[in-house]
Write a structure and sequence with these properties.
Elements: H1 5-29, H2 35-44, H3 54-86
Helix pairs in contact: 1-2, 1-3
């Protein structure tokens, strides 16, 4: 069974971008929340900084969504290629 490329890309983009968005917003409200996660994230994404501003949270969200989409694209490509080589060919009736 092959995976849906569009479904996985959208799901991964929403999940990873949404995680950064939620932690970033919580950090604005409560500055001690998610500091380690935001620092780690800012070390990976060059345009994202863990400063307490809505602009930075939105930049991190966009970076995370793009990164999640790319990761899903690679994963689905590899998975579907492996599944295609593993399934026996069915004769036409």
């Amino acid at each position: 069974m092959r995976l849906s490329l569009r479904g996985m890309v959208v799901a991964a983009a929403v999940m990873w971008g949404g995680a950064i968005l939620l932690v970033g917003l919580m950090n604005i409200v409560r500055p001690t929340y998610g500091i380690n996660f935001l620092q780690m994230t800012s070390s990976v994404y060059p345009w994202f900084h863990s400063a307490h501003s809505l602009r930075n949270v939105l930049i991190g969200t966009i970076d995370g969504a793009i990164d999640g989409a790319i990761a899903a694209l690679i994963f689905v490509g590899i998975y579907n290629a492996l599944v295609a080589t593993d399934q026996p060919k069915m004769p036409h009736a």
